[in-house]
Amino acid sequence: MAALLRSSCWLLRAGAAPRLPLSLRLLTGGPGRPHAASYLPAARAGPVAGGLLSPARLYVIAAEKKDIQEESTFSSRRIASHFDWALMRLDNSVRRTGRIPKMLLQKVFDDTCRSGGPGSSHALLLLRSCGSLLPELKLEERTEFAHRIWDKLQKLGAVYDVSHYNALLKVYLQNEYKFSPTDFLAKMEEANIQPNRVTYQRLIASYCNTGDIEGASKILGFMKTKDLPVTEAVFSALVTGHARAGDMQNAENILTVMREAGIEPGPDTYLALLNAYAEKGDIDHVKQTLEKVEKSELHLMDRDLFQIIFSFSKAGYPQYVSEILEKVTCERRYIPDAMNLILLLVTEKLEDVALQILLACPISKEDGISDFGGFFLRHCVTMNTPVEKLTDYCKKLKEIQMHSFPLQFTLHCALLAKKTDLAKALMKAVKEEGFPIRTHYFWPLLVGHQKEKNVQGIIEVLKVMQELGVPPDQETYIGYVIPCFNSIKSARAILQENGCLSNSDTFSQAELRSEAVNGNLDFVLSFLESNTLPLSLQSIRSSLLLDYICFCLLLLLQCTIFLSYQITELLYKDGRYCQEPPGPTEAVGYFLYNLIDSMSDSEVQAKEERLRQYFHQLKEMNVKIPENICRGIRNLLDSYHVPELIKDAYMLVDSENLDSQKTVQLRSSELESRLETLKAEDKPIRDVLKHLILALCSQENMQKALELKAKYESDMVIGGYAALINLCCRHDNAEDALSLKEEFDRLDSSAVLDTSKYVGLVRVLAKHGRLQDAINILKEMKKKDVPIKDSTVLSFFHILNGAALRGEIETVKQLHEAIVTLGLAKPSTNISFPLITVYLEKDDLSTALDVAIDCCEKYKILPRMHDILCKLIEKGETDLIQKAMDFVSQEQGEMVMLYDLFFAFLQTGNYKEAKKIIETPGIRARSTRLQWFCDKCIANNQVETLEKLVELTQKLFECDRDQMYYNLLKLYKMNGDWQRADAVWNKIQEENIVPREKTLRLLAEILRDGNQEVPFEVPEWYEDEKHSLNSSLDSSSDSTTEPGLQKDILNACQLKQSKGKSIFCSNIFNIRTVVFIISPWCSTIYYHIRSIAETHIKGFTLNDAANSLLIITQVRRDYLKEALTTLKTALDQQQTPSGTAVTRLIQALAMKGDVENIEVVQKMVNGLEDSIGLSKMVFINNTALAQIKNNNIDVAIENIENMLTSENPVIELQYFGLAYLFRKVIEEQLEPAVEKISIMAERLANQFAIYKPVTDFFLQLVDAGKVDDARALLQRCGAIAEQTSILLVFFLRNAGKQGKVLSYWFRTLFENTKDVTSAKALYEHLTAKNTKLDDLFLKRYAFLLKNAGESVPFTEPPESFEFYVQQLKELRENSS
Amino acid sequence: MAASAARGAMALRRNIDRPVAFVRKIPWTAASSQLKEYFAQFGHVKRCIVPFDKGTGFHRGLGWVQFSSEEELQNALQQEYHIIDGVKESLFRDANGRKAAQSQPVRFTPPK
User: Could you point out which of A139, A368, A1204, B67 has its C-alpha 20 to 30 Å from the C-alpha of A246?
Assistant: First the structure.
């Protein structure tokens, strides 16, 4: 690369425009022009020159959870989720504060290293964070950090691509790091990475930062030879370059040159110029330029102004800061940028300027409690700002009410940073302000010393405490002082020596508690018994002390049970310890509960006897515990699997009966007879009647249930009615449901039905036009306060929507009104959706809008605004649009209105208008709304609309760019459009986005599907997932999971589309819907939706794969007729169903004994067998099976025999596999068939020398565990053992599960044939599979090898054959 | 110390009938005695626990206040928010205590 650069120098000499500097000559020269002209100004995301403040949000929310449904390996999944975690943390930080704290970055970095192989996205993410996002670090430290990350991750195996090198360059620029661009290029060349446009742009910027125009020109010349477009970013860099080279004249001239090249200077260029002036302290020119910018209708953001401020202050002209600060708009959204600047200034030791900016921040002081400015104080503490300055800042912050307790906050920071001296000084200041200093303020300091066992440090802190008049209390001693010493005695001695022990009483108390914690029970006991307590009565009573005693008792019970009785008794009896109302029962109860809770289950099991003794002892001592605690103990014991102890524990409770209810469940027939007997005996039948009705309801037997009700009406109870009503609703029987409801009310007017039953009633009544009755039910629901769940609200929606689609305006209106006014559902866009739908369906836009407005006025919601707007725009109803917009902006704010309009314009293809809207100053990203629209576009396959959305939102503030591109890729993926996907990869680079792994994965997948090279490292677990996806497909539909299906269908779609006749993903039926439909759980819905689809979409059909899956689903659900129809339809449409689907269908038919339909299928797929990989054996096997099922065993056998013995066999003999038939016959225990098949197989072997069937049969017997039968067969027909090829295949397939009979096998196989090669193959296969081989097997193998004169590759088992045979036999007997 | 205090808290939490309030967002400047002092305006505070983290010397901003009667607890709960040392804190009845305690029992292994 460097060589290339040199060779291009001659180009530079060629141009001749004498008065302009070198680089400019190039730009004015001919061929460069069209490029420059055609190129739009680059994004303003990254100010190349100064590069100080946070560029547009690099990070974005990653809250979205990964949908990993496939089993992928643990570690790779962890890496993927870890990336999201890291991204989320960093992004949250940037969002909230405009920066990343160093500790956070360090932590994410460490975690990344620890998690093993870091993905390349990880690396990119970390590298990108090392620039201006670390305002709390000095520039050199940041670059050093970046280098550390670079090297470490490379060592750990991260693969870098061009995006990483570009990111590193960006970091260099932002950190003003001096490096050699030539070396950098050489490094890239060495790593075999091609620099791209972004690389060159940034290298130019780096030359310019040092004022090296010569160097910049070289690269520029090279870019020109490569025909790369020159963008605004390059010009901005040149402005900086000339300025830093001291040539302001030429810096200014660049703007003219730009215009000549056809690029209008944008904000970036002006910003570079402004910074250049600021670095020279030229306030006049800065002001002039700012005015010029304003006039040219360009808009400088606060972020840009902050950069100018920084340039001034860093160059030593803080006096001009206030003039720039006046121009700052102080919008709230720039606060993160302001914070960033403040921190940067503090890092640069310019705290006073930082404060000036902080004070100018627009903080709402409405509630007076929200504090601001903490980050500034904290960073000042970190940067060791002198305490005088700090206290001064605190005062100021408090005065203007920016922070309510700045001093305390600063103290907190000092304590966290363990800065003892600063903390001391701050505490004094706090005290002077009149606030108390509390003991626990010192604990963090003590903790620091305690960790290092720094006695001197502890003593110092204690002295400070004394000095400030805060004597240490018990907690201080126990928690933070005593642990630092070897013993309490030495602590006492040393403290006394140093004069730190002013209050000896406190220390004594601490001593006691400390001893208790250490389990020194003797000490505690003697202390409790002694009457001269060194403690006040108050502190003994303190339950905290009781806790301590309990705590040591737990310890004690582990060793000596004796003492614990004593202490438990003491606790229980000695009034001194339990004077408070709950009394001793509770204290001991808690004690016991905690005791058991604190032991692990194995401990409890081990000490079961001991605990039992203990309980009995307590019982003898007449100790009682409350019942509820005992229940807790019971739960614990239960969970520890020692239920035997429960009764012992229950002894301690006052006897109380447990209510045990028995519920008897009987079948309906039994119930019926019972009912009759009872009736005959004239006994009460209510209960049985109810059960019977419930049983009938669950059997969906409405007729009978109603009859029964009519017969025994007088004995009906509430429960029976409820079930009946529900049953009638399910059966769409409004009449009966209503009359039942009336009877129900008559029976007990206060009785309440389940929510779902009420909803069912409402649905069925509304459907049958009994509006008033439905409303009455709703009213009753309200009156009886029926619980409303989310699902209830959803049901309401469906009821309303159904009515809306039927066009029943009145029904929708009144029901909605009733539901909402009764408060059964809160007014929401969802519930009100049908109100609009009903008019939109009728194309009555004006009323639709009115209704929407009405909704808003009544309920503060605007349902279906988007749809209304789109229709209005399409029809050009300007007045109505105006009306709608006025209304929205008045009700929901301008932002919502803008988004509504933006989406509506996009949707209707009015992109120019959409652009104007989204460029409105002050508009910011609303991720949920954007995502909503993206989803909509993807669902409807609107490529152009989505592309426009992504393009137009590029400069949108806080827009999650990665997510936008991800959505776009999703759509490309659906359409298999790799060319557009490739363009996205370049755009991502230029926009400086860290793509998430899912984005990269998706991109790679699209490129691969299009047979393209992937220009970056694909995050690893993709491979696993892909593998498992494939395998799940291979293993056919048994384990078909949703992703598998989705993938399959996607592939199928693309296949179809390439043939140019896909209507599969037309309009409303997107992939996801279809996957949902075909997934095995909802094939009934499938019919419904398909019928809609067929009526609404011209020529709607499912494609091959979808049809195949449908067949499999139908077979599984036993809809064989439908499956046959589906197959027929598919074949009629010239589709190719999958082999699996056809096989499944045939097998199912065979199990039903349906010979005819098997033939039908055979005819249908005739000629297709090879293309779908269907063996003829499938038909032979299954036809035979079907015949056997129909008890035509002889016919089946005769057919097979004929086929095998005929002179022109349909299938070659070695492929004539009957294993499936044999297995099924054995599995289904069709004994007569088994017998006849056995005879047939033997006959074939003995008379015709056809050994395949008998061997297959033999193997199936073994496989089914019928070893005896197999052995007998083997004895009758020894030739089986010679079929080594068949046997070996079987072994290899079944090696895993057949370990038990392996040795037996081995003998039959190898002793008869002495086939060493096969034996070796088998052995290797088994060891490769890690199958555990028994000694007998090894012995035999060794024997075989030795006989063949070969060496034995393992230690031969020493004992005799008989020994191992015996051993195995015993083993088998024991295990069975 | 911290462990035991937490145990105490557990004991409080388990007893659903006791008038215990769970306090969040306690400022670092306040410890149990400040909490006790503050809540005394609503009634007699029997116990007040703010567990400290022994590793840092700070508490985690959570605590429990046990009143002697339900009425007093209700007094405290009526106030929308409480301000201790200038920090708004959330206070609510520890009604979820039972469920939380049973589904995820906090276990202590006694120091050896």
Answer: A139
Instruction: Tell me if chain B has a CB within 8 Å of the CB of A539.
Output: no
Nearest one of A495, A496, A526 to A512, comparing CA atoms:
A526
Q: What is the CA radius of gyration of chain A?
A: 42
The DSSP bridge pattern shows strands B63-67 and B82-84 to be: unpaired
The Cα B52–Cα A891 span in angstroms is 49
Q: What is the C-alpha separation between A1323 and A932, in angstroms, rounded?
A: 60
Angle at alpha carbon of residue A138, lines to A137 and A144, rounded to 5°: 90
Q: How far apart are CA A582 and CA A912, in angstroms?
A: 77
Give the model's pLDDT for residue A2. Answer: 36
**Of A164-168, A619-623, B92-96, which one has max mean pLDDT?**
A164-168
The model carries a pTM of: 0.48
Whether residues A440 and B52 touch (CB distance < 8 A) is answered with: yes
Per-window interface: B 56-85 vs A, CB < 8 A: 56-59, 83, 85
Q: Is the pLDDT of residue A561 over 80?
A: no
Give the pLDDT of residue A926.
Answer: 87
**In this predicted model, which residue has the larger pLDDT, A758 or A15?**
A758
* Helix, strand or coil, per DSSP, at residue B20: strand
Helix (H, G, I), strand (E, B) or coil at B66: strand
Q: How many folded domains does chain B comprise?
A: 1
For residue B20, give how far its alpha carbon lies from the nearest alpha carbon of chain A (Å): 15
The answer as to whether B98 is a domain residue is no
pLDDT digits (tens, 9 = 90+) for A1294-1316: 544 444 455 555 555 555 555 56
Tens-place pLDDT, residues A837-854: 888 888 888 888 888 888
Q: Is residue B9 part of a domain?
A: no
Q: How many residues does chain B have?
A: 112
Q: What is the DSSP letter of A1348?
A: T
> What amino acid occupies position A502?
S
Q: CA torsion A755→A759→A762→A764, rounded to 10°? A: -130
Tokens encoding B5: 């205090």
DSSP bridge pairs for A916? none
Task: Please count the CA atoms within 13 angstroms of the CA of A734 that sit on its side-chain side.
Answer: 13
- Quickly state the pLDDT bin for A274 (edges 50, 70, 90): very high
CB contact under 8 A, B31 and A438: yes
The pair of three-digit structure tokens given for residue A511, joined into one six-digit string: 């001593």
Mean pLDDT value of segment A1155-1164: 85
Report phi then psi at A924, rounded to 5: -135, 165
d(CA A597, CA A604): 9
Q: Which of A309-318, A586-595, A1339-1348 is predicted least confidently?
A: A586-595
Chain A and chain B share a number of CB contacts under 8 A equal to: 81
Q: Do residue B110 and residue A554 have CB atoms under 8 angstroms apart?
A: yes
Strand, helix or coil for residue B45: strand
Structural element, H or E, at residue B82: strand B82-84
What's the confidence (pLDDT) of residue A81? Answer: 67
Q: Which chain B residues contact residue A517 at CB under 8 A?
A: 1, 4, 111
Distance CA A1163, CA A1124 (A): 12
- Determine the residue type at A151: D
* Residue in B closest to A404 by C-alpha: B86
What pLDDT shows up at residue A6?
31
CATH code where residue B72 lies: 3.30.70.330
Q: Establish if B85 belongs to a structural domain.
A: yes
Three-state helix/strand/coil letters over A463-480: HHHHHCCCCCCHHHHHHH
B110/chain A closest Cα distance in angstroms: 7
CB contact under 8 A, A544 and B88: no
Q: For the ranges A49-53, A445-449, A866-870, A1169-1173, which has the lowest average pLDDT?
A: A49-53
Name the most confidently modeled range: A720-729, A1326-1335, B82-91: A720-729
Range of the domain at B58: 20-93
Question: Domain for residue B3, yes or no?
Answer: no
Neighbouring C-beta atoms of residue A717, cutoff 10 Å: 15
